[in-house]
Amino acid sequence: VEEMRKRICETRPDVKDVNWGHIMDGNLHFNVTTPGNFEHDPEVQDLLEPYIFEAVVRRKGSISAEHGLGRCKNEYMGQYASNPTAVTDMKFVKEMFDLNGILNSGKFLPNDNDNE
User: Fold this and answer.
1) Which secondary-structure segment (H or E) carries 103?
2) CB 81: neighbour CB atoms within 10 A?
3) Distance between CA atoms of 78 and 108, rounded to whole angstroms?
4) One-character DSSP codes across 40-98
5) Is the peptide bond before 50 cis (omega within 30 degrees of 0)?
6) How many angstroms separate the CA atoms of 18 and 113, rounded?
7) Would the pTM of this model clear 0.70, i.e. be above it?
8) Which of 2-11, 57-66, 84-93 has the largest mean confidence?
9) HSE-up of 54 (CA within 13 Å, CB side)?
10) If residue 16 lies in a helix (H) or strand (E), which one and from where to where?
11) What are the Cα distances from residue 99, in Å, to 39, 56, 88?
12) What is the DSSP letter of 34?
């Protein structure tokens, strides 16, 4: 948290981190807010990504938890997965149950062209 807070505040002192987590299982939900600005801020996103994912991997953590990846992080999954084979295995299982690729399309697993 301190590492990310320092990285953000050096450039954007208006950005505040608002974090919570699950103490017993070690999950931290790192979140930032820009008070008064309710729109997506690409500059803030660029300060965080992929730097935050690299920091998590250095600490042997995971970039996802019980909520999955959604659309925002799936492009990083192949690059920062703790076990690269796991992504291939997950795709295989999904293809077995979703032959037409219509179930949650692009919301969890990266598209094949995301890892190129």
Assistant:
1) none
2) 19
3) 11
4) --HHHHHHHTTHHHHHHHHTT--S-BTTB-TTTSHHHHHHH-SSHHHHHHHHHHHHHH-
5) yes
6) 33
7) no
8) 2-11
9) 7
10) strand 16-17
11) 37, 33, 16
12) -
Three-state DSSP state, 10: helix
Q: Per residue in 14-57, pLDDT tens?
A: 999 888 777 677 777 888 889 998 898 999 999 988 888 888 88
Tokens of 79: 């690059």
* Sequence-distant contacts of 102-109: CB under 8 A, at least 24 apart: 106/71, 106/74, 107/68, 107/69, 107/70, 107/71, 107/74, 108/68, 108/69, 108/70, 108/74, 109/74, 109/77
Residue 40 token pair: 């997506």
Q: Is the dihedral of CA 14, 50, 81, 59 positive or negative?
A: negative
